[in-house]
User: Fold these one by one.
Assistant:
Number 1:
Amino acid sequence: MEADQLATAYIQKSRARRKALQVLYEEESYSDTVRESQEICELALKAVLRLIGIDPPKLHDVGKIVKQYASELPATMQTDVDVVARYSFQLRRDRELAFYGALDVDPAQDYTREDADAAISQVDFILEWIRPLDVSRPSSPNRSQEASDQPGDTDENA
């Protein structure tokens, strides 16, 4: 499998997992929502690295690496790379606690709807952020409409 095929698979898995995230949230499984959010973030950012020719390391937080190679990203993505790296770090920080807990942390009790809302918001931001590199998604009608609304275009020939 080539790097761009693997990256496309990562993006598709990220988007599928985002749909599954909603089920966890609706079941009020907030710690699992946080944990799964981290995995979605990890897959999405590893896809970005593959698409710019970087073999991602086997780490859960690759946000710093994405930031390191920001100059390889489209200009529209470079502006938010610091936010993405911060989200990746925050989600990584909660990864094990949200899943396993600790002697003083009961994930089922200590993770709240607000924690889950924050994690979902971060994941949604990242999935939207990777859109310029997402070769797995066909252009939407809105995208092609935006392209035809450029100055000088008219609807006369439509």
Number 2:
Amino acid sequence: MKNIPKENTQQSPTTNDKAFLGMLGICAKAGAAASGAFAAEKAIKSGTAKLVIVARDASENTRTDYGKLCNGYKVRMLIMLDKEQLGKAVGKDERTIVAITDEGLSQNLLKKMNCSKE
């Protein structure tokens, strides 16, 4: 079993919080959500990703790989929702990963989850 780097990763409980899901939708409509593996990885590597959300039903390899990537680029990562919920929140089909590229919106999402910046 692979270990997911814990430094910037937080395992979050299931959420049906309409405010959180609504904020994800706002991020997408504002063009501040890079959804899907390719777009999210590009946002992380380019330094534009401020927060990464990985679906809790993503494969262990995916969670590990993005955990390492986010840790290396010092990007906060949450593991939450399932692929269907994550995709629906950003107006897409199932999504395994979404990167939020706006600092203010990422902070707002963290507040909705009662997560501190550090």
Number 3:
Amino acid sequence: MSILLPLPDETATAALAEEVAAVLAPGDLVTLSGDLGAGKTAFARALIRHLAGADQEVPSPTFTLVQVYDTAVGPIWHFDLYRLTAADEVLELGWDEARQGIILVEWADRLGPMMPSDRLDVALDFGATPDSRVARLTGFGTWAGPGDGDAPSARLALSGDAQA
């Protein structure tokens, strides 16, 4: 099961990102999916700023493919894999080293068989209004709640609609 959360505007998206950031620790992976413009980078930017400081510059890693940020809880590695043509190309970007920190991955489907089994998936879809979005959070491995299939674990105290 997943949790669906309506996000009426970018402020709500940022608030959700901050809630996720508050429970992250080294070794955690958060994948971000959604169409172009759905808010993946806005979510990542808010999460990173919550941990690295509000003044932290957070450019999209679309062209650099990865950006690393130092925080009090450890490094955050922000990957954008949109331009990868093969999953193993992520190794050249420092993937093995990144696994020791916190990882955010946009376009994580590009990982293919390299996708870690322990992760929180955040899928962002467009909502009913131009500024609104709907977030679907799905936990896998250590992020899955006990007995709840793939609903996010109790690490996240979120309330939303549970969806199969």
Number 4:
Amino acid sequence: MNCPACTRPLTALHIEGVEVDACHGGCGGLWFDNFELKRFDEPHESSAWEQTMVTVDAEVVVDHAAKRTCPRCAVIMQRNFYSAQRRAQVDTCPQCGGNWLDCGELAQIRAEFLAKAVRVSTKERPVLNQHLRWFVSEE
């Protein structure tokens, strides 16, 4: 498979039993097959990313506005926000469900989940409970 951002060959990385394809020595992007990204998107899920080094070639120029083609099935991918915070965008294949992340987007996604966890833990009462108070009798 080739990188959808810079067209270099992708290198298979094996992280905790999951094969992730990386643009090693190119733009540094990552390809996750369907449902694989869910295994690594939250900071508490895996510490293996800290030991994984994907080298990036500073000479490679990536057009972030360009539409990407799925490296697995050659379908044009759809760009969407990964979480409700609407900070990190990923390219998702509508056919196979795979996800392409540009360099640094996985760290951004993991940071969003960490920030959300901190905000929720500091609240006395989650917002959802305020809406449900009418259905629960308080004593």
